[in-house]
Structure prediction request, 387 residues.
Amino acid sequence: MPMRTPTQKGRFGEYGGRWVPESLVPACLEVADAFEKAWVDPGFREQLQTMLARHVGRPTPLTPAERLSAELGVSVVLKREDLTHTGSHKINNAVGQALLARRMGKQRLIAETGAGMHGVATATAGALLDLPVTVFMGEQDVERQSHNVFRMRYLGAEVVPVRSGSRTLKDATSEAMRHWVSSTEEAHYCLGSVVGPHPYPWMVREFQRVIGDEAREQYAATPDFVVACVGGGSNAAGTFAGFADTSARLVGVEAIGGSGATFGQAGVLHGSRSLFLQDEHGQILEAHSIAAGLDYPGVGPEHAHLRDLGRAQYVAVNDEAAVAAASQLARTEGIIPALESAHALAWVAEAAGTPDLPAGSTVLLTLSGRGDKDIATLIARSEESRA
Prediction:
């Protein structure tokens, strides 16, 4: 059965594990031990559930996208993670890990962020629980997500621009892990996706499975398709976890420039073995996407395992299709989605009425975040098209 607890070594099939420097092994073991005990502790689960209800706004609703469905010829229902406090699914995991950090006696949080939403979520959780936060963010993402940089700093977090490599999420993650090596005694690394060494892919999926569990309870029947965007893949993992044992077809949609699950090969990055874009020498390639949250050259190890099992299908769409899909949702439903989520919408729009997504199918799609953060990008794109 897919999407269960990984092996003792943190493996999902041939993927996952703990590929870290010896100096980080004790910290990873400490997090794994703390999470295993917390996750079976009714007191911890009740505390988390209370915070998700009071501060995050759970449960989030399902919204039938009626006009969009009429245009596409398939029935689309949206799981509205864009309506959470802070505006994306990232807050579910951030609150969970912040609670765990306090339970572990840690004094502050470290995080990385691409689109800025995990940084905002961690800054928010840190403020709620009185834990100082340091966020590492690629310099390019600092520039294109200035709105979220302001939000993080306003919430009291320190934002550290990362100027190495492609200056995006991959480099921010590398820098955050380097910082954690020197501060494991007093800091918890609040990793934002289902990537990294064990137990992070499993732990983040469990903190995000609230998306799928709620949607399954709210949806009247099993949908034909369950669709979510995939960078590292946290919102997709959380959504898929609620439907992995049903007949629903699971579809993860990547950016064409960050399509690790679609076109990647097995390799090791950021502490785990998974699928990554690589050159002929095995070097990790730079990723690119108009959606900063999908600007990652690989995918979480459980997604790689689901792909190999054939339980989930992974596809990729380009920037132009994502921008067009965002516009279509705004025009038909009055919702401006995050450009990450717009990739999932783009696949539905492209596949609707084809053998990949037959007419009349029912589709549950997770809207992972709201598009406020991407307005500057959309304005620039619009001006380019008029020039």
Remarks:
- The first strand starts at residue 11 and ends at 12.
